[in-house]
Design goal:
Elements: E1 3-7, H1 11-21, E2 27-31, H2 34-43, E3 48-52, H3 60-68, E4 75-79, H4 84-93, E5 97-100, H5 105-120, E6 123-126, E7 129-132, E8 137-140, E9 143-144, H6 149-159, E10 165-167, H7 168-176, H8 186-201, E11 209-212, E12 216-219
Parallel strand pairs: 1-2, 1-3, 3-4, 4-5
Antiparallel strand pairs: 6-7, 7-8, 8-9, 10-12, 11-12
Length: about 230
């Protein structure tokens, strides 16, 4: 069951989507503005978001861009138009998918389940580094790398957000939820061990994992020497 953020300035649409999703066990966080949505993202663990495109003050495209700066969960844009330009723009701002109004229950559920399932089946290959979330396997040039659960999860978050900055607070929320006992600086310790293990495996981690001073971490698509 997913924690779903639903953002729309029309109460009717918010209640309609909750009516579609809540019976399947999903927890729906309903907000009617982009500003409120950003506050939710900063304080509540979210698995997937549905963002209406046409909203006053801050539209869905801008909201999506702002969310992408602090979170990496899947985002579905909700648009009144079924046009290719909306699909292209959604990809540009960091959206994963889109649905056109009028929304059909079956289509909405299918797209949500597909994206959530994709998150659970994460597989990445990056310059000889192999990562398989479902198989709990990590290797470099076919040599297995033994990681703790936290290190493994951190690596998955980094590989899933190439070139994006992941803040310490965001990483804490994605790994431990609302556990107030976990300090953001705890991430630094786990990241230090992850770096060391990847370095020992022969992977040039220092060329791709960048510490963003005062914020968090970023996995680079191109090495620093490129």
């Amino acid at each position: 069951m997913a924690r779903i953020l639903i953002v729309d300035d029309e109460q009717r649409m918010l209640q309609l989507m909750k009516l579609y999703l809540a019976p399947y066990g999903h927890t729906c966080h309903l907000v009617d503005s982009a500003e409120k949505a950003l506050e939710i993202v900063k304080t509540v663990p979210i698995d997937i978001a549905l963002l209406d495109v046409m909203m006053p003050e801050m539209d869905g495209w801008t909201l999506c861009e702002n969310i992408r700066r602090i979170a990496d969960f899947p985002i579905i844009m909700v648009t009144a138009r079924n046009q290719m330009e909306d699909v292209v723009r959604g990809r540009t701002v960091g959206a994963d998918d889109y649905v056109a109004k009028p929304i059909h229950e079956g289509e909405l559920l299918g797209r949500i389940e597909l994206l959530i399932g994709r998150e659970k089946r994460e597989q990445y290959i990056f310059h000889g580094l192999h990562y398989d979330a479902a198989g709990y396997d990590c290797s470099f040039n076919e040599q297995k790398i033994l990681l703790t659960k936290t290190e493994f999860q951190l690596l998955g978050k980094l590989l899933g957000s190439v070139n994006g900055i992941l803040s310490r607070e965001q990483l804490v929320r994605s790994l431990w939820g609302d556990d107030q006992s976990i300090e953001p600086r705890t991430i630094d310790s786990h990241m230090r061990h992850l770096r060391e293990k990847l370095r020992r495996s022969g992977f040039p981690i220092d060329q791709y994992l960048e510490t963003v001073r005062g914020v968090g971490y970023r996995w680079l698509e191109q090495s620093k020497d490129s």
